[in-house]
Amino acid sequence: MPPQAHPHPEPASASAPTPETSPLTWRYPFPDRDNKEVTSPQTFYQALAGMEDGFFPLGVNGFPHGGIHLNNSVGMFETKDGVRCIADGYIVAYKIDDAYPHLQFKDGKWAMYSTGFVLVRHTLTLPPAPNSTGVQPADESQDIYSLYMHTADWANYLADEKLKRPWWWLDVNAFRVQNRDHQMAPPEGGTTGAAGALVWTEPKAGKKAGSFTAGEQVGFLPEGSEVIISETRGQWVRIKTITAGHMISPVNGGYFGWEDQNVPWKSEADSAKVTPKDDWGWLYKPNLHGIKEPDPVGLVVIPPKPAFVKAGTSLGQIGEYHDYERATPLPPAPKRQLLHLEVFADDGFSAFLDKSRARSAHLPVDQRTLLVINVGAKLVKDIPPADCKLCDWHPLYRADVTPDSPASGPWVKVQPRYNDSTTALLMPGGPPVWIEREKLATATATTPAWSQFPLSLQKVADPANAFMLVYPRSQLDGLSARDKAVDDGKTQWWRVKFGNADGHTATGWVRERDHPGTQWQSPWAWPGFERVDATGIDLADAFRRNLVLTGVADWKEQKEFAPSITAVNGSPLLQKLEQTISKLAPPPGYGAGSKPKQENPAGKVTATAMQAAMRTPWLAQALSHVILRYESEWGGDMSRWDAITPLMRNAKDNWLVELQRIRKLQWWNAVKGKIAGFPASATVLHIHPIALTANFMSAGSAKSISEDGIFFIFKQEALAGVTNRLHWPGGNSGVTLGAGYDMKARSAESIVSDMKSIGVNDAAAHAISAAAGLSGHAALDFCKKNLGLVNLSDEKQVDLLRKTVPAYEKMVIKAIKIDLLKHEFDALVSYAYNPGGGWASVTNFINHINIEQAMNNIKKYTTSGGVAFDGLVKRRADEVTLYTTGRYEFHGDPLPPRQ
């Protein structure tokens, strides 16, 4: 019998989801082997090519296949934390085997397999039409489902206490605190304290249905503490009792409780936040480790309230799946972990896709994150020879990196300098030039150089690109430093692979803007995706074709099966696949004199050819961008499988056993009608999960400030007539120049280097360096005596600001544990640059997704020396606006874009 859904005391049918306007975050199902985020979908296509089965959209058995198979047999991924959710969504159904079912074939061999799964609903909502107001129409949203099939059984977790367990399992009420949080540093200064979990007041309802945001920090439970919970709200749980450990202050070294009562509802400090009497507070559930068996196991569970999970959330460990080839005479033991991952949507997706593509044409340019390289586009293949020497007329003293030189990439822009013997000054040895970065440290006067940036669109050349290619911005930004360059105009170049007319790999440089034959498209344009209907393929016909394809059929059967082969090969799916496979490059050594290889009577689309195509980026894209309409293997009538039985010959008995497994794996009818909006029919549209993720995945969490962010801080910090000259801000500051370049803790040597890097002459740079280490009245006196020593332009002040910002970038990276968009990162760097207090509380709120409270806290810090400043009030408002809306403003007025 197919699995039955576990009944719940609350109604299992949730109300239909409402459209959500905030974009989804996306993650690949596993990080790479170094536990870093994968940026290129080709990493996964390469792994899929190394699998024995589970290809998309056609399996090794010749049947249409709506998902992909993954494990770590290829050693490319970190899988110890299990499979991750690919996008923000809601868990609407799941199953955990108590122990893996065993299958005994008629020849006595045994196999084990997992029937466990997790089903997650995601809602794609189109960006609003320009100038539209009000609620978006319902047809601008579409539910899709991601399925994670063959997850680990409960016995697997029992056998290894260290295995990461999903925090969202139902009916688990006992947890152990992990080490995700730390006690906050004291407001007056100091370090963070013990590892563990912060305790909070009651969470507030979030903007997304079923989501909640943090309250206020009231306590802290050290790592290893154990609790029993009494209530769950989204990702938050209420403490009923503490069974191991005791609560302490959320602040390192802070007071907690009242006299000898370590409770969060009493405090000696009048200003401290407390919970209502007898309320032990709330914990963030992802920071906890369940120590009790989930209830139930062995049944399909439909949560009464779908559990919201973020992209990257662990959904469970990968389970076992043994086919007949891995069956053994003895009771089976774990030997092959296997994940089946797929994404599907109902037939309404077709209309949504059409509307999405129409909408994409009207969306802002900055929302176009996919670089499309069209057929016929030519790239810059060869770098022109150097056209000059680094320093032609004088002995080179040194080569200074220019302020406008890119920080990384194959080439660096330098200003050659020589020592003028008549004046003992360093003089420019000609105009700035470009040299290879790897030669910077050993540069001499004769080092080859380019008078202009080495890459130019005038140098595009054959071979032309022969296959449409789509490169997500996240993939381009993830390329190695040697494959990325930035020219004088701050425009990016990337060196990418493409296919020539013969199907062979070529490489060339493509420019970010104005490159003929390329354009940026929105993910909502779905470039390269194509719907293919495979419902006309009969499984028995596909099986007959596969018997011929694999050489199992004899000559008589080949003739008998010819109509089946014709029918399958003539289907839209096989026509599409053959069109792709035919573009594979010929094998090495194949030439005009080579003897043609005899074609398989069942056609070109073989498992071997599919694997070869997946190793070829442009062909892997074509295969993965098929949107396959076909009946799911997890539902539908068993008659299509029964129809294969007469073709099984000597394997019939084992096939009848295999049919039992197919029936037991089907879960569709157990959830149909019980999940709001779930497709009634098992005939659905299957979307490749890796291609889908690549289409929508952003560049990942920002780790460095943008040019817009630098200028934003400059506008907040700069003061005309003051910051452009040497000045003393007062207090404990030293001599300062520009928007916060304080020399009190800097060496004279570093000051000289920094001043010269922004164009200050040698004599002035050395004179300024005498301010090193000065503070207080000594700093003030120095500024008065040297007021006219330097007068920086706004651009030079911005260049100098780049010297001081990295320390604050590191502050943000260290404190924030969630992904940040570019404007969010920029806003926090600005706040860190001049916080006035509250850094620990603001970052804690952000880490617990309580953005509203974090922004409210930022707005509090508007005083200096106990005095409120109007400039700080406006600055905090600008920082909040930047974080929440992405608008770069100065005192409410828009700032011009810098990149």
TrEMBL record:
It catalyses: Hydrolysis of (1->4)-beta-linkages between N-acetylmuramic acid and N-acetyl-D-glucosamine residues in a peptidoglycan and between N-acetyl-D-glucosamine residues in chitodextrins. Residues 11-23 have a biased composition (Low complexity). Its EC number is 3.2.1.17. Signal peptide: none annotated. One of its GO terms (biological process) is killing of cells of another organism. Belongs to the glycosyl hydrolase 24 family. This is Lysozyme. Keywords: Antimicrobial, Bacteriolytic enzyme, Glycosidase, Hydrolase.
